């Protein structure tokens, strides 16, 4: 049976798309540990390994903490290394995420978004990756299987870029995308191989003739400088992400950037959303536009490093904006995306009324009706010139919950 | 959304309800349309009621919410009727197709169907046993579904399915033939009330 | 068997200038271990005394490639390095012969590191894990670990009017590794350097995982005059508190039998951590410790006599 992958349009679930991208990337080392709903990625990949279709050394570790530890060891050794996880698994490897970025290792990890316990829930929300938003990783969010495939491939180029050298997680919604089959346009094996290029590590433990120490201890005299030095490559990644996305578009016909603006140009009211909900919103926006409502959407693809300038530029002219958060951090004014967007807009003289909708926790469905109601609210706020929200906190509405 | 069809499948864990949706999705894609196929997940185990879904359209589908008003419902296991509300959300002109050895007329009253709603039955389990040799009703149901809804070119779908199966079961021509026959027979034998 | 002269010629793999305590015994363990290797090695260490005192940026004492990532996972980290090596070799992208050694303290091995050690050993990576066992969490200021002997005073098992120190006897981690069917498992001590070096050589020659548990007297946590560090190690061995043995494919062999078995009390009396046990009223504890040492030693003799 031919195992070569060619350019064609095939039906794949999000997990299959991630595994296929990994197959074509053909990493030197992969660490695997099961967790719903990401398990399938490594199951499918393990079959590729078992059938000799990849050169990968698969390390079937005994926990997610060890998955990231082994991936770090392999990357530091000089190998292209990947793993995949979700929710509690991400939470368990939390300390290692900071270590991976602190050690400037270009690890790429498909990350299936699932709610964090307690209560335990296997369905989609963004609390897992949001809980790791300060770990120094690049966070890419995907709307559908096509984006999972494309972004996993691009992430290798982004992370390995000498001006970046930071790990990336490619986030996609648990079950909604991970287990849903949609059409995906695949690339040739050669396309992917040429696009990512061979791996040229900046440092390698296996270069035994030039021994290095990785993971030294800093006392108070050096830690701050090392962290300060991590700032430039982190925010410099915006440029690289755009360059890689543009090159991908030129070569393969699908261009990517920091975010997608959907009918945003002349919009007066808009929502900001991450992940699969953006797709549902597109249907609502088209319906509203047909009725003459100037509705639009900023679908945020890159959550980290947070493109505050670029987002603020895109939104400052709006009359009213609703930020949709699929996590509630029990932390501050509304969800994490909302807080950061408000902060980004703070310095602008012209800035929209900005409100927050927390939705979809634990996989709660978000419907066309829900999104319509959000735009309805925005129209009202725009007309009245102020947010008149009826909710627990002034600016936050919990959308789709039984109060 | 013009031309968007939504299908809900009812089965019991282990009967292939999820695979049924995937089979449809695959068939649809081969004819150049757009599709989604996805299961509903929970802690169900073998034998528990499960559902899966399809969306089919001529235009790209970006919706990611649940299917709440499927225009077509397919019931793979008739024992679910009564245990599960299989007609939930079915519109006034919706269609329900049931795998059963009983005639379609038995179900109109039982399900409390409206005049405009259509019910079809086919003994997919029997067909599967006789053609494929196992009681896995999803392949024959695919044939019944396509015939009843006319959503795809039937012959093209059949050829495409044969082609796909031949690639997968190169060494087992019997399996290929069995599946193709299953689809054809179900398409012939499916009847309304 | 190795000659001191030959070993000395191999050069220095750990430079001076690191910040270990005067009288610490892990520098000797490192030097003996690295001198025993006859290929280049990559070394990992868990967070702990060893890592913290040898890698203070911008300095490092290690003249071999070295990685530290976190506390509980040196086994997982080194297993990743070894997997990278296997992968790159298999793909023809790398052609050197390299061996992999992970060092973990008893805290990072017996306790928090047990999971990742178990996983790495079970998966069969070709790596040597050396536990430098100073019988407590020393880096954080002497807290009890499951390797701490019964009756020892530590800051989390202190003596007091209602306590005589640690309640439990030490966990037998070496037995756990033997139960993993690791092809080469051993106990060693820096005081018996030839035995240790020979064991490291055997371990590195094993085509699979290997584990050596090395007693590491700590002048601060055990409390003794730094001058007598090696003598303390020797007494630990001669009292059979720390037997030297190896298990090769399940077959036990005692590699050193003391000519005269030292009473446990004579070993323990020298250490401040046991001082309270010699106060009147605590005789039963000393007896208990002697009995446990005897039980484990006799059991070891029986296992060594068996054909496995």
Topology:
The complex is a heterotrimer of chains A (403), B (193) and C (308).
Chain A: E1 9-13, H1 14-25, E2 29-32, H2 39-50, E3 57-60, H3 64-77, E4 81-83, E5 85-86, H4 87-92, H5 94-102, E6 108-113, H6 127-131, E7 138-141, H7 145-160, E8 168-173, E9 181-185, H8 189-196, E10 213-214, H9 223-252, E11 259-262, E12 269-273, H10 277-290, E13 295-300, E14 302-304, H11 308-315, E15 320-325, H12 336-345, E16 353-359, H13 368-384, E17 396-399
Parallel strand pairs in A: 2-3, 2-4, 5-6, 6-8, 7-8, 12-13, 12-15, 15-16, 16-17
Antiparallel strand pairs in A: 1-9, 7-14, 11-13
Chain B: E1 5-12, H1 17-30, E2 34-39, E3 49-57, E4 72-75, E5 95-99, H2 105-111, E6 118-122, H3 124-131, H4 138-149, H5 154-168, H6 173-189, E7 191-192
Parallel strand pairs in B: 1-4, 4-5, 5-6
Antiparallel strand pairs in B: 1-3, 2-3, 6-7
Chain C: H1 4-9, H2 26-36, E1 41-45, H3 49-54, E2 66-67, H4 74-90, E3 99-105, H5 106-111, H6 114-123, E4 128-133, E5 159-160, E6 163-164, H7 173-179, E7 184-188, H8 193-205, E8 210-215, H9 219-223, H10 229-238, E9 244-248, E10 251-256, H11 264-268, H12 283-305
Parallel strand pairs in C: 1-2, 1-3, 3-4, 4-8, 7-8
Antiparallel strand pairs in C: 5-6, 7-9, 9-10
Tell me what you see in this structure.
The complex is a heterotrimer of chains A (403), B (193) and C (308). Chain A is α/β, with parallel strands linked by helices and 403 residues long. Chain A folds into 2 domains: 9-206 and 235-252, Rossmann fold, CATH 3.40.50; 259-399, 3-Layer(aba) Sandwich (Rossmann fold), CATH 3.40.50.920. Chain A contains 13 helices and 17 strands. In chain A, the strands form 4 sheets. Chain A has a 6-stranded mixed β-sheet, sandwiched between helices. In chain A, strand 2 (29-32), helix 2 (39-50) and strand 3 (57-60) form a beta-alpha-beta unit. The model of chain A has no long low-confidence stretch (mean pLDDT 96). Chain B is of the alpha/beta class and 193 residues long. In chain B, 38% of the residues lie in helices and 20% in strands. Chain B has 6 helices and 7 strands; from the N terminus they run E-H-E-E-E-E-H-E-H-H-H-H-E. Chain B has helices at residues 17-30, 105-111, 124-131, 138-149, 154-168, 173-189; strands at residues 5-12, 34-39, 49-57, 72-75, 95-99, 118-122, 191-192. A 7-stranded mixed β-sheet of chain B has the order 2-3-1-4-5-6-7, sandwiched between helices. In chain B, helix 3 packs antiparallel against helix 6 (173-189) and helix 5 (154-168) packs antiparallel against helix 6. Chain B is globular. The model of chain B has no long low-confidence stretch (mean pLDDT 91). Chain C is α/β, with parallel strands linked by helices. In chain C, 39% of the residues lie in helices and 15% in strands. Chain C has 12 helices and 10 strands. The longest helix of chain C is centred in the C-terminal third of the chain and has 23 residues, at 283-305. Classes of the chains: A alpha/beta (403), B alpha/beta (193), C alpha/beta (308). The interface between A and C is large, with 44 and 46 residues. Strand 10 of chain A pairs parallel with strand 2 (66-67) of chain C, so a sheet runs across the interface.
């Amino acid at each position: 049976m031919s195992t070569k992958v060619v350019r064609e349009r095939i039906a794949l679930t999000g997990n299959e798309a991630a595994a296929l991208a990994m197959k074509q990337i053909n990493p030197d080392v992969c660490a695997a540990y099961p967790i719903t709903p990401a398990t399938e990625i490594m199951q499918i990949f393990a079959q590729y390994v078992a059938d000799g279709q990849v050169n990968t050394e698969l390390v079937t570790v005994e926990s997610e903490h060890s998955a990231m530890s082994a991936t770090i060891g392999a990357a530091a050794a000089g190998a292209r290394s990947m793993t995949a996880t979700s929710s509690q698994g991400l939470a368990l490897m939390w300390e290692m995420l900071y270590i991976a970025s602190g050690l400037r290792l270009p690890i790429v990890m498909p990350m299936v978004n699932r709610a964090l316990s307690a209560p335990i829930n296997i369905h989609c929300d963004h609390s897992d990756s949001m809980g790791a938003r300060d770990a120094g990783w690049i966070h890419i969010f995907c709307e559908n299987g096509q984006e999972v495939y494309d972004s996993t491939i691009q992430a290798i180029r982004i992370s390995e870029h000498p001006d970046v050298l930071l790990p990336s997680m490619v986030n996609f919604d648990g079950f909604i995308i991970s287990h849903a089959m949609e059409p995906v346009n695949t690339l040739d094996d050669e396309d992917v191989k040429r696009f990512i290029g061979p791996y040229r590590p900046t440092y390698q433990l296996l270069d035994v003739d030039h021994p290095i120490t990785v993971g030294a201890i800093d006392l108070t005299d050096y830690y701050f400088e090392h962290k300060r030095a991590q700032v430039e490559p982190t925010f410099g990644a915006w440029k690289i992400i755009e360059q890689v996305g543009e090159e991908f578009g030129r070569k393969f016909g699908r261009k990517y950037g920091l975010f997608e603006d959907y009918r945003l140009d002349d919009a007066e009211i808009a929502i900001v959303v991450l992940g699969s909900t953006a797709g549902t919103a597109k249907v609502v926006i088209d319906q509203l536009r047909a009725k003459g409502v100037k509705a639009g959407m900023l679908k945020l693809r890159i959550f980290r490093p947070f493109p505050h300038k670029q987002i603020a530029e895109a939104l400052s002219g709006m009359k009213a904006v609703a930020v949709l958060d699929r996590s509630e951090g029990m932390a501050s004014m509304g969800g994490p995306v909302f807080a950061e967007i408000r902060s980004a807009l703070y310095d602008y003289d012209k800035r929209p009324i900005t409100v927050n909708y927390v939705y979809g926790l634990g996989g709660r469905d978000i419907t066309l009706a829900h999104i319509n109601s959000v735009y309805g609210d925005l129209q009202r706020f725009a007309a009245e010139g102020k947010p008149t929200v009826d909710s627990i906190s002034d600016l936050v509405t919990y959308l789709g919950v039984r109060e | 959304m013009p031309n968007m069809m939504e299908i809900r499948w009812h089965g019991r864990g282990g009967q292939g309800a999820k695979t049924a949706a995937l089979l449809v999705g695959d068939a649809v894609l081969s004819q150049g349309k757009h599709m989604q196929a996805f299961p509903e997940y929970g802690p169900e185990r073998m034998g528990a009621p499960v559902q899966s879904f399809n969306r089919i359209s001529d235009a790209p589908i970006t919706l990611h919410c649940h299917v709440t008003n499927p225009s077509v419902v397919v019931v793979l296991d008739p024992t679910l009727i009564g245990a599960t509300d299989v007609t939930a959300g079915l519109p006034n002109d919706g269609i329900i197709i049931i795998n059963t050895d009983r005639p379609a007329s038995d179900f109109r009253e039982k399900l409390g169907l409206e005049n405009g709603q259509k019910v079809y039955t086919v003994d997919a389990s029997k067909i599967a046993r006789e053609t494929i040799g196992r009681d896995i009703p999803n392949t024959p149901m695919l044939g019944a579904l396509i015939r009843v809804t006319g959503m795809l070119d039937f012959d093209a779908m059949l050829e495409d399915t044969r082609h796909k199966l031949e690639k997968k079961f190169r060494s087992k021509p019997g399996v290929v033939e069995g599946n193709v026959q299953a689809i054809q027979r179900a398409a012939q034998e499916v009847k309304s009330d | 068997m190795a000659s001191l002269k030959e070993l000395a010629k191999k050069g220095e793999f750990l430079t001076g200038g690191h910040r270990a305590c005067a009288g610490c015994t892990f520098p000797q363990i490192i030097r003996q271990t690295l001198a025993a290797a006859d290929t280049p090695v990559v070394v990992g260490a868990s967070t702990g005394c060893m890592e913290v005192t040898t890698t203070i940026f911008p300095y490092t004492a290690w003249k071999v490639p070295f990685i530290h990532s976190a506390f509980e996972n040196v086994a997982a980290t080194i297993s990743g390095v070894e997997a990278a090596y296997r992968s790159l070799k298999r793909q023809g992208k790398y052609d050197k012969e390299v061996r992999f050694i992970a060092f973990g303290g008893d805290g990072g091995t017996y306790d928090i590191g047990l999971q990742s050690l178990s996983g790495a050993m079970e998966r069969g990576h070709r790596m040597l894990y050396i536990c430098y066992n100073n019988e407590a969490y020393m880096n954080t200021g002497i807290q009890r670990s499951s390797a701490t002997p019964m009756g020892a005073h530590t800051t989390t098992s202190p003596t007091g009017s209602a306590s005589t120190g640690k309640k439990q006897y030490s966990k037998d981690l070496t037995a756990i590794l033997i139960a993993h069917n690791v092809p080469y498992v051993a106990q060693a001590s820096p005081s018996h350097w030839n035995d240790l070096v020979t064991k490291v050589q055997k371990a590195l020659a094993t085509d699979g995982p290997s584990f050596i548990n090395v007693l590491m007297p700590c002048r601060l946590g055990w409390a003794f005059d730094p001058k007598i560090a090696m003598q303390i190690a020797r007494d630990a061995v001669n009292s059979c508190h720390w037997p030297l043995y190896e298990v090769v494919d399940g077959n036990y062999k005692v590699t050193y039998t003391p000519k005269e078995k030292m009473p446990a009390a004579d070993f323990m009396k020298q250490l401040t951590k046991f001082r309270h046990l010699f106060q009147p009223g605590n005789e039963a504890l000393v007896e208990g410790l002697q009995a446990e040492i005897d039980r484990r030693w006799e059991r070891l003799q029986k296992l060594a006599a068996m054909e496995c």
